[in-house]
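User: Now give one protein:

AI:
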Amino acid sequence: MKQENIRNFCIIAHIDHGKSTLADRLLELTGTVQKRDMKAQLLDKMDLEREKGITIKLAPVSMNYKGFELNLIDTPGHVDFSYEVSRSLQACEGAILVVDASQGIQAQTLANVYLAIEADLKIIPVLNKIDLPAADVQRVSREVINLLACKKEDIIYISAKTGQGVEEVLEQIIKEIPSPKGETGATTRALIFDSYYDDYRGVILYIRVVDGVINKSEQIKMMATGAQGLALELGVLQPQMNPKKSLAAGEIGYIVTNLKSTREAKVGDTVTTQSQSATKALSGYKDVKPFVYAGFFPESNEYYQELKDAIEKLSLSDSALQYDLENSPVLGFGVRIGFLGLLHMDIVRERLEREYDLTLVVTNPSTDYQITMQNGEEVDIKSAADLPDVANITEIREPWINGEIVVPKDYVGSVIQLISSKRGIQNNISFVDAQLALVSFEAPLANLLTDFYDQLKSVTSGYGSFNYELYNYRAEDLVKLDFYVAGERVDALSVMVHRTEAQSLGRETVEKLKEVIPRQNFVVPLQAAIGGKFIAREDVKAFRKDVTAKLYGGDVTRRKKLLEKQKKGKSRMKRFGKVDIPAEAFTVMLKRD
């Protein structure tokens, strides 16, 4: 296909604004998929994606329409996968911005628009769901015009569900989006915008050829990781794999390689060939580092090997997943896994439970901390239990984020209150239009991990939307808060917390533990402590058997003797008794009221 007849574009939107449904209609209209093979959210192949109604793994597809080759990339909409989205945008010349006519512009819409402008893409604004009774076309049109500084006639009004107006989108793609500008004769460079592991074929790369040509059976090399392999098969996706002899500059397609793990071919890396080897890689590659960590333990230690094998298999296809083995005195052997965010953690947990049939105990998520020791050594810890001796520490730094909340102006006051309650600093308020405000702020990531999003939805009646990126690490007055059950410290419950919040969090947590830990035949003390100082305590009351029930009449000393005997038995039990801690105890932090 000639370069002037190729159009590379992606669809960007907030979660649930109709990206995948619009992709379905485009596949139908271009005849790429027959009506009998069509199903809703065709490009979302995972069951999880269909149930949650979100795109987790991006999917490219090549369509032919009126003599043009239209290459579409359906991108994820969630903030956790923003690096993948940015790489997808690098592979395109244009983007369709889908905005829900009933919900208007949301935080992730703005974030994706900024990424598209940064990548210098031609943006085509599309207003979706205009057939809904709740659609407010005039208001949302004004929001889009203010955001993109476009004219009203530039906006295309569609209903992706019914297909109304979708043909006009195809015409605009051909008319407005420029064709790729690669040189076929130059040294070969291709951008990897996604890679996954297939059990039967090895690592499969989704690429955009920027310059040169890649031929079947050619030796290929990844420029960032240095891994070398063979292009066993290549071609385009329609949406099934359609093999070809070669992929030339400007084309989007796939390469089946003989690599064994996606860690050898990461998203954003540059592929070149041995015969036409490039010296300069494409810009923008970065090593994605996880910043949310949680411990995963099997319900019984006999399933530990199965959990380990399952995580090894998952990490083959998810290069962002990093894990270390850990051991807890209470929970036994497990794995500490790093994630890109809470949604990523949720998805990995569900995949482990469904695909590998495991029952898991997941500890409270935490972030990583940078520590400077008195001898000048720098230490990174991923769990509060790993904190070195406080006497040898100079400072502890925690990650802060730059966040944006998009919300109707009536809720700005309650949003600012929420931010300050999380130790956040509100930087700026700007207005997208007369009704919609954009609140920019900075906040410590650890305080937003558990339930910030739920609280935001509560205080804004469901209208608020939130987007963030990691900003920097700051030295704060942080302490390790330990929890003791029946006098024994439970490391899996330890958290890093700001000194000002330690007292309230300690009280709150022991109260919740009291509800979760079952009563024993002896009193179980639950305590929160910073170092050697206890700051909160609750007691789980003991069961009491009525040992005097069989007595009738007689001397009072008989009664006292029986009660004394019971008391001695209870104190002995307290010394030797074991408390079984249920799995729910390790997620009490997640269940904040």
Summary: The radius of gyration is 29 Å.
